[in-house]
């Protein structure tokens, strides 16, 4: 056998061996891929029971949604989101960034202009991918309060293109209390946590101390439900939900789905002077658009007289979002009716 023949055989064996080993290298790379969170959901019951669902499966599996039965409605308060009124009166609201093209729709109306501008700098829509992008600034943090306050029972679901970096938080702020969950990726801001760690915590309005409610570690390619409980008195209030992200790289959000009771917003700050209930401030919103002015005296709500600020706030909170309400007011000594549609 000539030297040339030996070289040809050796070369053929080299290429055959390379082709044989290539799939093994690909499998090893897949095994070494970091844990990626593709969906998480926080469900809250009126008795203070929380269920956190964390999904680290492929997007095709984790992004599957349950069928929602109810009547589709259009409410200006939710912009281009898909809104379904359920049989129990709650609303199911879906912000799908395949169809929503303006990130400003995610900014709550109760924020001042400076806060809106600051948060808006960290939000953008990637139309090619159909996602909302949260981009950390110099502080390596993004905090996005969701557009509306909510009351239990409620659930919040966030579908992602994959979260494997930094720390993602979902927080609920009922009154001055704080309840939150943290999902940790690699390079998390929390030095004591590892990739895959899932922590739940709480802090009361009267304390600076955090209480640990849950500590687990999520594995790759699984869907897990975790339970924890808080004092029901602390959750049965108007609650602000927020998504926070701490990290270096942008994080893409495919969809946000919220189901719950949404207290109506009138945009009036009431004050009691003697036996009179006075509009101390009127903010941009439903009441201002309807013609309510600062200094108006509130007499009744849908023909029901109110005698205290507490009674008035309770009656207003029980009104239906998007349904017209008749307010009887007194201005300059004269009574008049003003129709307001809370949003």
What does this 3D model show about the protein?
With 343 residues, this protein is α+β, with helices and mostly antiparallel strands. The chain folds into 2 domains: 37-261, Sandwich (Jelly Rolls), CATH 2.60.120; 268-340, PDZ domain (Pdz3 Domain), CATH 2.30.42.10. The protein has 6 helices and 22 strands. It has helices spanning 3-31, 59-62, 113-120, 232-235, 286-290, 309-317, and strands at residues 37-44, 49-55, 70-73, 82-86, 91-96, 123-126, 131-134, 141-145, 151-163, 167-174, 178-184, 197-203, 211-217, 223-229, 239-246, 251-261, 268-273, 276-282, 297-301, 304-305, 325-331, 334-340. Strands 1, 2, 3, 4, 5, 6, 7, 9, 14 and 16 form a 10-stranded antiparallel β-sheet that branches. Strands 8-15-10-11-12-13 form a 6-stranded antiparallel β-sheet, with no helix packed on it. Strand 17 and strand 18 form a beta hairpin. The protein is elongated.
What is the topological layout?
Elements: H1 3-31, E1 37-44, E2 49-55, H2 59-62, E3 70-73, E4 82-86, E5 91-96, H3 113-120, E6 123-126, E7 131-134, E8 141-145, E9 151-163, E10 167-174, E11 178-184, E12 197-203, E13 211-217, E14 223-229, H4 232-235, E15 239-246, E16 251-261, E17 268-273, E18 276-282, H5 286-290, E19 297-301, E20 304-305, H6 309-317, E21 325-331, E22 334-340
Antiparallel strand pairs: 1-2, 1-9, 2-14, 3-4, 4-5, 5-16, 6-7, 7-16, 8-15, 9-16, 10-11, 10-15, 11-12, 12-13, 17-18, 18-19, 19-20, 19-21, 21-22
């Amino acid at each position: 056998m000539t030297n040339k023949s030996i070289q040809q055989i050796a070369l053929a064996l080299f290429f055959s061996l390379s082709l044989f080993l290539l799939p093994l290298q690909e499998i090893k790379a897949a095994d070494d891929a970091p844990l990626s969170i593709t969906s998480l959901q926080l469900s809250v019951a009126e008795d203070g029971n929380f269920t956190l669902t964390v999904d680290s499966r492929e997007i095709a599996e984790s992004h599957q949604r349950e069928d929602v039965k109810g009547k589709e409605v259009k409410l200006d308060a939710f912009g281009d989101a898909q809104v379904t009124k359920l049989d129990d009166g709650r609303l199911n609201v879906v912000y799908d960034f395949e169809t929503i093209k303006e990130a400003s729709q995610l900014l709550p109306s109760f924020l001042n202009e400076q806060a809106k501008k600051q948060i808006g700098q960290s939000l953008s829509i990637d139309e090619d991918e159909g996602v909302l992008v949260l981009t950390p600034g110099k502080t390596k943090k993004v905090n996005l309060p969701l557009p509306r306050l909510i009351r239990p029972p409620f659930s919040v679901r966030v579908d992602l293109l994959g979260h494997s970096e930094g720390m993602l938080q979902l927080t609920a702020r009922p009154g001055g209390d704080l309840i939150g969950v943290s999902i940790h990726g690699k390079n998390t801001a929390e030095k004591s946590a590892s990739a895959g760690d899932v922590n739940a915590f709480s802090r009361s309005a009267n304390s600076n101390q955090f209480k640990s409610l849950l500590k687990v570690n999520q594995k790759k390619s699984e869907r897990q439900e975790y339970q924890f409980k808080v004092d029901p008195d602390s959750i049965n209030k108007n609650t602000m939900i927020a998504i926070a992200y701490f990290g270096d790289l942008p994080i893409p959000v495919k969809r946000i789905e919220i189901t719950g009771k949404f207290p109506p917003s009138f945009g009036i700050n009431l004050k009691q002077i003697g036996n009179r209930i006075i509009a101390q401030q009127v903010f941009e919103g439903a009441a201002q658009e309807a013609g309510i002015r600062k200094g108006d005296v509130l007499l009744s709500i849908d023909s029901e007289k109110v005698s205290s600020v507490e009674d008035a706030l309770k009656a207003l909170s029980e009104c239906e979002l998007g349904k017209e309400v008749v307010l009887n007011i007194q201005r300059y000594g004269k009574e008049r009716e003003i129709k307001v549609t809370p949003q």
